[in-house]
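Hello K.,

You asked for the raw outputs rather than the summary table, so here they are, unedited. I folded two proteins back to back in the same session to keep the settings identical. This is the first:
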Amino acid sequence: MTRLAPSNTLASEAIEVVTKLLAAMEVSATAILRTPGDAENGPTIDIQGDDSGLLIGKRGETLQSMQFLVNLMLGKKGIHPLVVLDVEEYKERRSRSLQAMAARVAERVASNGRPISLEPMPPAERRIIHVALSNHPSVTTESVGAGAMRKVTVYPKRERRTQGGP
């Protein structure tokens, strides 16, 4: 069962590719259009069904890989912009969880004055942490490391000394 606006070619092509991929993977799930997208932002497709949890993987790695494959397949057809895949709103739940964790870590760093490094995470998740703490008055963030081991470190902000001060 596929729900989409009939005039949205990108969305219909994306739904078709996701549906074929799910069938090839022998996963009992359905691709449903959540947001149609526009010229700048691609559609968001939510995958729902009995086997949909299998598609998330550890920290969303399977879902990210599947999204990459779908966009690669659509790109070969000359279809852009990028399509976003989600499984039963996993990405939104994960985003809220990361924002809450960022706030807790920021308060610990602010209270004890020592930096804290978070677990390695993909770029999109690191960005959520950076954005969540971008206006925090007591901490700053930085991505450190390389490749799959890249992680966010939360540092206390240092007070700037005025000229002529101690």
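The second followed immediately with the same parameters:
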Amino acid sequence: MKDMVAIILAAGEGTRMKSGLPKVLHQVCGKPMIEYVIDRLEELNIDKKIVIIGYKGNLVKETLGKKVDYIWQKEQLGTGHALAQCREILAKFKGDLLVLSGDTPLLTTQTLKRLIEVQREKNALATILTAILKPPTGYGRVVRHGDGTIRKIVEEEDATIIELANEEVNAGTYCFKKEAIFQALEKIRPENVQEEYYLTDAIEVLTRKGHRVEACTTDEADEIIGINSRKDLSLATKIMREHILDRLMLNGVTIIDPLTTTIDREVEIGRDTIIYPFTIVEGKTKIGQDCIIGPAVQIKDSKIAHKVEIKNSSVQNSIIESEARIGPYAHLRPESRIGKKAKIGNFVEIKKSTIGKESKVSHMSYIGDATLGENINIGAGTITCNYDGFKKYPTYIEDKVFVGSNTNFIAPVKIGKGAVIGAGSTITEDVPPYALAIARGRQRNIKGWAKKKTQRK
């Protein structure tokens, strides 16, 4: 978008959040709230984006990287003071400024586009985004003249009883002519309850000079919600989650109970997949078509192919290929890969391992730092002993191996193709292909031993 610079106010601590993290980095459905604002600006093709940082600003810079420019507000003296810090960097710029708060993740691209259109169609010095809220508690009120034109914005703490009854509120998002707003900022004073330089006071400076300030009122009041407390964060997350689930359902995903389902913003799910209750899908997870996920499943940053079934299980940073079955009560730790039509059953933990096509680890086993081939059967209670207290060691099991129950593989060890491991074995050496390996003590039966022991007692 030509002749437009976006400025995001993100310097505040957010004391009501009661957190060591800058307010704008608190997450809404898997993303820091300020990233939603930046996403909207990128959709508007605004190339130059400036983020004003202050409290723990280095954390904001680490999160956002080089996609934006930064200005430090060394002292947090109010929103007007924050915007004034941009005067030098914008000295040669002659267009419009789009000013937003970093704590408004629900703002839509469409609303911002309309705000800019009003500013440019009316050739206004300033255009403010407003909404009608019932009740309007917590927001600055928009005060109009009798003819409906904007007179000023008054913050709630400084408003009169009559002004507090006004239900039109300031959304904290503005378009300004650059020269006009910087001239107005020179006139504002910290004569208010907070003793801060309010950006909103610049509106009255402009109107007193006879300049007309325009308003763009959104019909979707939810989108102007600013996050100042954990309660606000919860409300914004609830609204965002509803938007995400609605979009998925409109695209052919069945969500049995939206009230008990949480899916992050960047998750992708294919059509005809069914999501059962108490399921959480996080991060940048991708789920294919015709899958059955849940109930009670947690998936994070994983890739799930088509026709996969996962029940009552946890999957983290893993890949599951088509038609695999996971659970119930399985745990796939990071860097695990489950092959096509493989089965990971109940109370099985997989860690940094590859399970080949049509292989089965059906119950009560731990497979760590291992590579399993195709068509392998792992008996119940099997463990790869991959850690000696100092280092992790690999286990390799080739195709078509049968592993009896309660087997311990003392890594590093390699099991050749087609081998059979006797139940109860502790394998400390490589097993050749198609061999039978039995590693357990010979059984001895001592007749009458138990009876004699009882008599002695």
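The mean pLDDT is 95.

Happy to rerun anything if the numbers look odd on your end.

Regards,
P.
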